[in-house]
Specification:
mainly alpha, 8 helices, 0% strand
Amino acid sequence: MDDWLEPKARAVAAGIAMLAGGALFGQIAVDMIEKDRGPFQAFGALFGFFTIWSNGIVALVAGWCGLIGRARGLAHPALLAAATVFILVVGGVYNTLLAGLNQPPTLLRALIDHVFHIATPILWPLWWLTLRPRRRLGWRQLWAVLPVPLLYCLWSLWRGGVTGKYVYFFIDVSLLGWSQVILNIAGFAALFALLMAAAIGWDRRGPARTS
């Protein structure tokens, strides 16, 4: 089965990779300057946010698409769909629940925040809807969306236990207790699985794309 991406798909993916990757490096640089942090310290502080994980994954996957140009490796169809689900969750949760609580103090931070929560969550799903190789997914690939959010939850629980600070309230063991946090994580995983199932169902519609 042909897995080469079309030139337009490669070019647009490369642009998305540069946008998301540029925002990530910009955020690290701003934190280094404004908060007097070293690069590893700045990255470590940002690594606690699922927004950073998702934008980083999109940057890597989109960059692979642009550079390599084949739906293999980091651009495997299951990973393309999973990255789409990750960034959709980020955009959806932020813009429905958190946007009013976030007030970036500078224009630069506001622009970076816009890329993380609006631009990438719109552009990458649009790329996936219109430019991906089609009819490449099967139901056995549903699991591909689960390792990242579950690993993120484990990381956040460990970090919260060490520092006493939890980035998101739904995994705050000190506030909710273990039983509720476990239920919340199960619901979190179910959301990703549901969206991945929707992506697989959508992908299996219509004829395969040919290059």
